[in-house]
Amino acid sequence: MDFSRLINAIQLSPQSNTVKELLVLNEKTKEYGLVLTPNDVTTMITFRNKVLHDYARVELSNEVLKELIEVYAASPYMDPNHYVETLNDLQEIFYYLRNETEDKISDIKLIDQIMTFFNGPCAGSVELVRSEMEQMAENFRGDLIRGNSSFERDDKTWN
Question: Quick one: DSSP state of residue 153?
């Protein structure tokens, strides 16, 4: 068994700290009518692991998924019927951007940028967010080549 499969097996155990930590977030999200079941969490972790594998990334913590759950729970566009599916799509967009921006933008900045489009001009449409983020990644790479990326700033100055 390779190392990544071992880590995945540990994370997917219903008794794992990962599952427990994500289920605790229900206390914060239930006020928005959003609640995850242990099966939902397992589905999201499995999806995350697939995305990480597809993008050749390694991530040992679940902080990004926790942040996505917490931040997007307050979105007026988060539908309880599509909660897990939307969070999975947002995870994929996030890790796509991590690769496309060569990890030069912090997690918080990326999540904030995705949220700005999700709650703003994209009105909760994940497909529109995906399109906007592809354009942002293209602009970022162009700026990087020219040496003037507006996204590479100290986190304290990010609004």
Answer: S
What is the value of pTM for the model shown? 0.82
- Reference 63, options 7, 31, 6, 25; nearest CA is 25
Range of the domain at 98: 3-157
Count of CB atoms situated within 10 Å of the CB of 20: 12
CA dihedral 55, 2, 44, 109 (to 10 degrees): -40
DSSP 5-57: HHHHHHHHSTTSHHHHHHHHTHHHHGGGT----HHHHHHHHHHHHHHHHHTT-
Cα dist from 11 to 14, 20, 45, whole Å: 8, 10, 8
What is the tens place of the pLDDT at every residue in 53-67?
A: 999 998 888 999 999
Domain count, the chain: 1
Question: What count of residues does the chain have?
Answer: 159
A 10 A CB-CB count for 125 gives 14
> How does pLDDT run across 127-143, given as a tens digit for each residue?
999 999 999 999 888 87
